[in-house]
Amino acid sequence: MHSSRYIFTIILKCSTLTLSLGQTWSFAHAEHIAFNTDFLKDKTDEIAINALNYGHTLEPGIYEFSLSINQRYIGKRSIRFVETQEHQVEPCFDQTFIDQNQILFINPEQQQINAQGCYDLTAIADAQIETHIGQSQLALTLPQVNLVQKPRGFVSPKEFNQGIHAIILNYSANTSYYHNRGESNHYNNSLFLNGGFNFGPWRYRNNSSFTQYSGEKSRWQSSSNKLERDLQTKIPTRLEIGDSFSSSDVFDSFNFRGVQFSSDSMQLPNSLQNYAPIIQGTAQSNASVEIRQNGYLVYSTHVAPGHFTIRDLYAANDSGDLEVSVIESDGQIRKFIQPYSSVPNMVRPHQAKFQFTAGQYRSGNDQKYHPYFGQLSYAYGVNNYITPYTGMIIGDDYYAGAAGLAFALGYLGSLSTDLTYAHNKTSQGESKDGVSIRFLYAKSLNSLGTNFRLVGYRYSSQDYYSFSDAMQERAQWKDGLYEYSYQSDYLNHPSNAEQRRQYFYSPTYYNKRNQFSASINQELGSFGQLYLTLAKTDFWQKEYNQENWQIGYNKNFNRFSYGMFYQHSKSMLQNDENIFGLNLSVNLDRIPALRKYDLSSNNSYQHSDRLGDTFNSTLSGNFLEDKNLNAQIQVSHQEQNRSNQVALSSSYRGTKLNSSLAYTYSDQYQQASASIDGGILIHSGGLILGQQMFGNPILIEAKGAEGIRIENQTGLKIDRTGYAVISSSSAYNRNRVALRVDDLGQNRNIDMPIINDIVPTKNAVIKIKFDVKTGHSVLAKLNYQDRFIATASSIIDPITQKSVGLVGLEGQAYLTGVQSNQTLIAKWGNESFEQCQFTLPQLNDREMGYDEININCHAVEEH
Fold first, then answer.
1. Residue limits of the PapC-like C-terminal domain (predicted)?
2. 578-602, pLDDT tens digit by residue?
């Protein structure tokens, strides 16, 4: 109680003095007023009051300040403060500051500079300078004519951080075990690896997989190897060597192994910049979803029963049809094709977009036909309305040329149209010359709540072959027939890809005739949202046409959300399927005792013309302090096999890895599955385990901060070695990392628990360091030559030259992060007679609170 009252008295005295000084602040600026300091007990306190006499709030020097210009945050900057002839301390806007922030002087009268090399920005009409010392903030307001105009979100390439040398390995291991009544048990195991190294600006990455199915030999496959880096030239570019994809701006995209040199829009500000498909489907049970592109497995996940949406296709290419397989718990498989191509972007006026690619064509389907090719595409923004683009491709007995125009139609949206001519020599030696015409349209009717995401149409003549079609035609020619492969809808071994594979032979190669795709979303205000997706491909052989379309409606109402949809799909060699569904979700946070668990109930009904009726009901919640443990229970009924099932599942997101478990019991089968995923980072400081690191990870070093959590990073803490890894950040944009200071406790302190302005390049590993002070907290009363130490004196660690405290009234100083028997220096000036030193005694070990001591300060010993 005594110490509490004493601290309260000190705070009260300091507050009174602060208020008194604050009231005189405006007068000190209005005219020079010398304050009578005779009332002070200690004459040395006149040093502390001199700053008030002259309006000082900090000494001249270099300080870290947050800079903003015209209310746009620029970032942390080192600002030099100087003392003027009027004894004011003001920021110095030197030539370096002017150049870095691209400030312009439009006439000689504005360009006023003093003897210290500082420009007077107040010479610019309407300029304002606001310095907030307490918040370390500097705000400038300048006329636009005095600034080089930068796009919103601009980050100078000088701030791009290539990161540290490092080795990265991401892993995802999955295992499933199936027991069907009356049949043999079976299993499948898989391991996906994505790893490589960073050396300066170079990035090497490899994607590999290991699969093991019942009754099959284990298989190891390396799907891609790539070395890449960015080139920060006048036009931002990227160099890729190895396995990659060509763009879809002019020609259809395809896999290749070779070299690619292209413009890189990622390095541009967000306001100057790309499309990844959103996959929507339905599951009858706890199901696995596999997505393949060009024969490669690019995505695998588990989904709950009902409607699902996949938005995070990490490995998806700019184009290339996606084969989506929904593998139900009982082994049934449903598949559909998601066509995927993006509208050629309108290029901004006087900007260019290009790509040069050369190498070997790679289909990804274990085919041994890998011809060499070269491809070039180019687009240039003539003005706000027209972007012409062109391209050419040359391969083995194949060449094609294309030209087109993209138009900005104002209120009518944007349209691109192009014509492609192609010559191909087929596997049977026939020469084929054909043309293809493409129209792509995009429009957002914001006033009506309508968004046409993608509307495209392509017509191809019967003798037209795209480059991919031409290569596939030759690869599929087998002994006078064309070989087509596909996977059957249902087998007893649902995850055994080879046993599901079926073959079909035909004397005809199926050429595409028409392709159409559209995605429309209509906002209905308080009445919900209506959406429609449609993709259709017609072949010259009509019986093999394929299509996939879905129409749906969603509505949110307080704690309820509900929706309905109808989906129709047909693949090239598989039967039609029609699904109708209803879903209802209820948030259960109205119950006070359950509110902290984020409990929700999801219920759905689906009718399929193949599977009949299916009912599902799921209860899920999040647990633990950081909500990083998810658990759910699901009950369902399926009409086709008259089965009832109960499924339990949980997932945990931890500092070192993520894990999940699931178990399904049915009167006809049982299924158990487990998975773990995480990442390994090797750097100069050792090896760190963490979550998967796919995009620009940030390595945090905070020695002494073990157990401290990271803001906005579920389950992530500083480990026992003093490190943590944030799995991803935004490339070429400013990122922020903050430690949760409420986890620090009494004997740890961090001067700067927040680090801003972290700008990684693509796939860089950025290392940041927090200076953590560990030690005791002390309330010391300091005396020097029978007097109190001057108010506002700094207490300095002579070894690190960092401040550990500040002297208040009556010689009181609160010190943090200090050690027993540590020698410290009190400074109230730069001269040797304006400082003294003292040594702390043996301090008590305590989790909370602080030691109170009286101590004498002595003259600094000269060495």
1. 793-839
2. 999 999 999 887 777 777 888 888 9
